[in-house]
């Protein structure tokens, strides 16, 4: 499968997946205004071509926290990723190892963190939530430590899960057994169903030790409601004290919050609106990025996600101060469409686009891209 852009990959993925998971990946909260805003924000920017700059050598590798990244992007945490096809979590880990692109494992992972970390060479980060039962969180932190994970990503933009109309229609997080409508959709997606079901019904393996339900649908219903809505800065301080490794706070959209995260000891903040799946309408991440970068100054590390689909988006975000960007849905679509090979193809395709754009803009390294900043861009 040759990567010619994400539209094609998305189409193939959506053709393969049953409705429940097709909608789960694509959908957003309420009116899905933010999902669209995230994309539209990139359309406001063009990258100005430069000439006669000797771009015979362009390097797109970069260092972020403890990670030597082959390109300035990472695979963002996606819950239920292992439902994209059988073994998808392992495929992402192997792709991470082969391409040197970090992979952040979701708390809501089908495969346990321990098994994913056993994939040789995978560049793994562990995403966690603070649960109502702090013992679960403490145990997840310990597990990450025992797996040798160097970076925890604490997601803070989900004190509640808002209504996501597509999931609501499908009964995701509401039903504990598949409805007739879902069974029909599973039958229609017969290739997916055969691939999945011949290995038995999957569950959220990462949460198995905590008894949040016996089946995947039961776990889906229970797990989100276990995230503690009463979280405050005190809890971030508590978590910082528990974890000696690198800490990223994900889901920061306000400069004051970013400043506070750094004050509490976060090593990086991740500007994210959860891909438009939480507050709707929230601003596009690209629109709030410059203020957040300015608020924490050059000493702070900012990464962003939500709406990144092309190499140009990556360059645009980096020019506006992001050290790295994250890809959520593209990871899921690639795995659903063609597994590990499609994911590696997508990563390579994006790398190619970033390299092309940097060369045509007269930039030969990520360091120089950061130094040039917004002088590379023209608002249109
Ligand atoms: C299907 C799906 C599941 C997600 N699950 C999680 C999760 O478990 N933890 C988390 O921190 N973020 C989760 N996210 C948010 C992503 O990490 C990321 O912020 C978002 O997808 C970026 O937007 P994009 O999909 O437009 O790239 C999820 C996103 C999607 C699409």
UniProtKB/TrEMBL annotation:
Glyoxylate binds at residues 24, 129, 164, 274, 277. The active site is at residue 274. SUPFAM superfamilies: FMN-linked oxidoreductases. It comes from the Bacteria. CDD domains: alpha_hydroxyacid_oxid_FMN. Keywords: Flavoprotein, FMN, Oxidoreductase. InterPro entries: Aldolase_TIM, Alpha-hydoxy_acid_DH_FMN, FMN-dep_DH, FMN_HAD, FMN_hydac_DH_AS. Residues 1-379 form the FMN hydroxy acid dehydrogenase domain. Pfam families: FMN_dh. Gene3D superfamilies: Aldolase class I. Its cofactor is FMN. GO terms for molecular function: FMN binding; oxidoreductase activity, acting on CH-OH group of donors. FMN binds at residues 77-79, 106, 127, 155, 250, 272, 305-309, 328-329. Belongs to the FMN-dependent alpha-hydroxy acid dehydrogenase family. This is Alpha-hydroxy-acid oxidizing enzyme.
